[in-house]
Write a structure and sequence with these properties.
The structure is a single chain. By secondary structure, the protein is mainly α. It has one domain. Helix 1 runs antiparallel to helix 5. The mean pLDDT is 87.
Length: 180
């Protein structure tokens, strides 16, 4: 399996979902079971901060990296040309970024529980994004939140310049930055 291939095998593509689901469950169990009871409020705040932060990270990455920086914009253009293809960020890269840019810095700035809580929140947001993005391109639903997300993502894919609707799980940042 090549790490930088445009399209992944079904196994490699699905492994991303499975590994992040397992990591999320393990982090949740560790936080609930072993986390210090006197830090429940702060850990909950870190989890929520991670989830909310993910929505902004998703927007920024999609708008400025995937549509602005080479070679990422060239790779992402493949997704726009072949929206049903099994194209995703290789798990090793996304995991390294999450550990290197979220977990370790938080561990240095705070403690293991805060680092785990923030990482769990961000990981939950990322998992929601990957599932939502897959569903947008591969599921057919009616009368749901997902149908709304499919509609706005279809607009994003149909624009020649791709200048709007960068949020996949939420339109919040598109509204804030007037790109909807």
């Amino acid at each position: 399996m090549r790490i930088f291939s445009f399209e992944h095998s079904k196994i490699a593509y699905r492994a991303d979902f499975a590994l992040y689901m397992i990591a999320s469950v393990i982090l949740a169990i560790c936080l609930i079971t072993f986390g210090p009871q006197d830090q429940i409020l702060s850990m909950t705040c870190y989890v929520l901060s991670g989830i909310i932060s993910w929505t902004l990270i998703e927007y920024v990455l999609h708008r400025f990296v995937l549509h602005g920086l080479k070679p990422f914009s060239q790779w992402h253009a493949e997704h726009h040309r072949h929206p049903d293809a099994l194209i995703c960020t290789p798990t090793i890269i996304s995991a390294a970024l999450i550990v290197g840019l979220v977990f370790f810095p938080m561990l240095v700035l705070s403690d293991i529980w805060s680092a785990c809580a923030l990482t769990f929140g961000l990981l939950t947001g990322y998992l929601a994004y990957t599932i939502t993005h897959h569903a947008i391109h591969h599921w057919h639903v009616r009368g749901s939140w997902l149908e709304y997300r499919i509609y706005f993502h279809a607009i994003h894919h149909s624009r020649k310049t791709h200048r709007g609707n960068f949020g996949v799980t939420s339109s919040f940042w598109d509204q804030v930055f007037r790109t909807k």
